[in-house]
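Weekly sync, protein design subgroup
Attendees: M.S., D.O., the rotation student, P.L. (late)

Item 1: inverse folding check
M.S. brought a backbone from last month's batch and wanted to see whether the design step gives back something sensible before we order anything. D.O. pointed out we never logged the input encoding, so this time it goes straight into the notes. Structure tokens as presented (311 positions):
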């Protein structure tokens, strides 16, 4: 079996796969082109187009992350090769930590205290009961469910939204356009953990942001394309003047890295992180990758990515 690996952590993945599969040839994507030819599998994150285009005998592509938007958007992707993506694989816990931090940031008024500090303002803010701080989770997939569960365990009422109807313990699950409108009207903070697909692009547009209650907050560790960034800036207000929304914690952007001149960088009520919410933890993900390889080789049924759904 020949596997070509492309990720920021290619050395570590090469070592881990070689150890787990001693009979396999595991190459990094910077190996000579001749050696890379005829690979059975690509195990990749943000693969360059030439790596996808040059292969002729692929049995499968393993996406070393949860989001497949980059891979599906590549014109060089061989359309007939099945793709599998990582499901949770340790990312759920990391994402839950990130989202919990974001919700607490607004719930415990850390945004207000940060703004008060330069003026040496000693002004405590009321702490409302968690029951009065419902949180909406858009996207109830492998990672979204881990986030919803962590928020529930932390004591927040949780509303969730997905494409298909779901039943999850202690989560009010909604779907469809009406379900989204209902959710937005009821939550203090909304978290977007959806994939970037044609159907989810700018799902939080001006109209939907306006459905959030005055003083609502947005946490987006999903994908930049989920939010209309101009509409978000408008809803946040400018300078000292708070708009309809109170603030946002953003990990992902329509263009990454977020350009230095982008107004989001300078906005006083926006907290920016550089797409770091849930990097794939190799130690958790390796077993899943190995089981995908075994399943491909054995011809077992595998849940593959549906390119027409976009996730
Ligand atoms: P999954 O594919 O497991 O789940 C996706 C969820 O989104 C499902 O609940 C799905 O609904 C829902 N969904 C998809 N399309 C729609 C739609 N049109 N309307 C309503 N709901 C929809 O994904 P994960 O949970 O594993 O990951 C989610 C996303 O998180 C990734 O695609 C990626 O973009 C992002 N991510 C970001 C990271 C970071 O570091 N910032 C790290 C990891 C992931 P249904 O259940 O009905 O299919």
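Designed sequence read out in the meeting:
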């Amino acid at each position: 079996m020949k596997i070509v690996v492309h990720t920021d952590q290619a050395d570590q993945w090469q070592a881990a796969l070689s150890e787990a599969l001693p009979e396999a040839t595991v190459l990094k994507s910077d190996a000579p082109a001749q050696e890379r030819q005829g690979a059975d599998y690509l195990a990749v994150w943000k693969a360059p187009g030439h790596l996808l285009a040059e292969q002729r005998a692929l049995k499968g592509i393993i996406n070393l992350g949860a989001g497949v938007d980059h891979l599906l958007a590549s014109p060089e992707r061989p359309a007939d090769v099945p793709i599998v993506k990582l499901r949770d694989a340790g990312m759920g816990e990391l994402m839950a930590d990130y989202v919990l931090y974001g919700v607490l940031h607004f719930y415990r008024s850390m945004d207000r205290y940060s703004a008060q500090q330069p003026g040496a303002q000693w002004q405590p803010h009321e702490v409302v009961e968690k029951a009065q701080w419902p949180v909406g989770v858009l996207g109830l997939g492998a990672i979204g469910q881990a986030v919803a569960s962590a928020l529930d365990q932390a004591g927040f009422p949780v509303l969730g939204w997905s494409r298909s109807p779901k039943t999850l313990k202690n989560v009010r699950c909604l779907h469809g356009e009406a379900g989204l409108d209902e959710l937005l009207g009821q939550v203090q903070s909304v978290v977007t953990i959806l994939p970037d697909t044609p159907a989810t692009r700018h799902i939080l547009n001006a109209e939907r942001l306006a459905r959030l209650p005055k003083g609502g907050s947005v946490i987006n560790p999903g994908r930049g394309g989920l939010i209309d960034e101009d509409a978000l800036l408008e809803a946040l207000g400018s300078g000292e003047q708070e708009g309809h929304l109170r603030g946002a914690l953003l990990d992902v952007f329509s263009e990454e890295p977020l350009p230095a001149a982008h107004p989001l960088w300078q906005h006083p009520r926006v907290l920016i992180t550089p797409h770091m919410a849930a990097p794939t933890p190799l130690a958790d993900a390796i077993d899943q990758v190995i089981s995908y390889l075994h399943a491909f080789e054995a011809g077992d049924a595998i849940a593959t990515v549906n390119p027409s759904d976009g996730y």
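Discussion: Residues 91-272 form a domain with the Rossmann fold fold (CATH 3.40.50.720). Residues 66-67, 87, 91, 139-144, 162-164, 193-197, 199-200, 221-223, 251-252, 275, 277-278, 311 surround NDP (CB under 6 Å).
Action: P.L. to compare against the previous round before Friday.
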